[in-house]
Design goal:
Blueprint lengths: L3 H18 L7 E6 L7 H14 L2 E6 L6 H13 L5 E4 L9 H5 L13 H8 L8 H12 L8 E5 L6 H9 L8 E5 L6 H5 L4 E4 L17 E4 L3 E4 L7 E4 L4 H4 L5 E2 L6 H22 L5
Parallel strand pairs: 1-2, 1-3, 4-5, 4-6, 6-7, 7-10
Antiparallel strand pairs: 8-9
Helix pairs in contact: 1-10, 2-10, 6-7, 6-10
The protein binds NADP nicotinamide-adenine-dinucleotide phosphate.
Length: about 290
């Protein structure tokens, strides 16, 4: 299940939404805020910049200065929230202590929180009235819908329960439409028997970051696997460099599962497309008063 056709369909809708507003309005703009040049987030920044440029979204990345602390992060977010020329703000996460990511994100209005990971958006997701839903959760659901995986009324398992990936995805899958109406099981590191926990699942969403976790010894035959996990491992073909892998052992699952998303090329590009789509939704709300709370 390649992500590309799903990302292209989302991009087409995003382009149409931009065109519908008209050229007289300043273009949508997205700011990506991160910790600095050495962060692993650099990889995502390049993809975001490319995607934004292709859609006509203005993009800039900002980093905290060396020595900046939690108060500086909060102040920077507050300033971006008040800047009328900025329509979307995307934050690298997680942030190490003493940073308090959720506290700082309280300063950002939910529309501009285009990754949907601030406390106001997560709370609204629980209340089933989301403004912005975590982009990766939307991407995983979009892929499942595109490939018509069993969701509604079906046993679905989410592996991983972080507040920004696994839990929001589980909420989305279990929720009423536009959610998945699925019967959801959540699995985590304290689950004693992964094979037993996955037995009976028709669709599995893996959100862990543990290469090779899912193979045919634990995944039931015929299940569909959406691999959200993303880890960098040494590339055996190119000494000294790394490449991206998911949670699934694709070799072991080949010929065993109903379908599987690749890594790279599965959930990743769809997540970027969803981020751009959320930016344009926020822009339309802020410049035209459309949608929103
Ligand atoms: P995280 O905060 O480290 O959470 C990992 C989750 O996996 C935790 O809930 C953990 O359980 C669970 N877990 C760990 N080992 C396990 C095991 N052996 N069996 C079952 N569950 C286990 O990571 P995250 O931020 O949620 O991200 C998850 C993955 O998604 C990462 O690989 C990340 O890179 C990837 N990701 C991909 C995209 C994309 O666009 N493709 C976007 C965002 C994130 P506990 O809660 O018990 O510790």
């Amino acid at each position: 299940m390649e992500g590309r056709p799903v990302a292209e369909a989302i991009d087409r809708a995003t382009r149409a939404a931009i065109q519908a507003v008209g050229a007289a309005t300043p273009a949508p703009s997205l700011v990506s805020l991160h910790r600095g040049v050495d962060s692993p987030f650099q990889f995502y920044l390049k993809r975001q910049a490319r995607a934004a440029q292709a859609l006509g979204i203005s993009f800039r990345d900002e980093s905290l200065a060396a020595g900046d602390g939690p108060a500086d992060l909060t102040a920077r977010i507050r300033s971006l929230d008040r800047d009328p020329t900025v329509h979307g703000v995307l934050l690298e996460h997680p942030w190490p202590p003493p940073f308090d990511f959720l506290r700082s994100m309280e300063e950002l209005r939910p529309e501009k929180d285009v990754d949907g990971v601030g406390p106001r958006n997560l709370g609204r997701l629980v209340g089933q009235r989301p403004i912005q839903v975590p982009a990766v959760a939307r991407a995983a659901l979009a892929i499942a819908r595109h490939y018509q995986l069993p969701l509604e009324g079906e046993p679905v398992t989410v592996v991983g329960r972080s507040g920004t990936v696994g839990l929001p995805l589980a909420l989305l899958l279990a929720g009423r439409p536009p959610g998945g109406n699925a019967i959801v099981t959540i699995v985590h590191s304290r689950t004693p028997d992964l094979r037993a926990a996955l037995a009976g699942a028709r669709t599995i969403f893996s959100c862990v970051g543990h290469p090779g976790l899912l193979d045919r010894t634990v995944v039931p035959e015929g299940a569909h696997v959406v691999d959200v996990g993303l880890s960098s491992v040494p590339d055996p073909g190119r000494p000294g460099s790394v490449h991206a892998v998911g949670d699934a052992n694709a070799t072991s699952l080949d010929g065993w599962v109903g379908s599987l998303t690749p890594v790279p090329g599965g959930v990743g590009p769809v997540t970027v497309a969803e981020l751009m789509s959320s930016t344009v939704r926020s822009w339309r709300h802020l410049v035209r008063g459309e949608g929103g709370a």
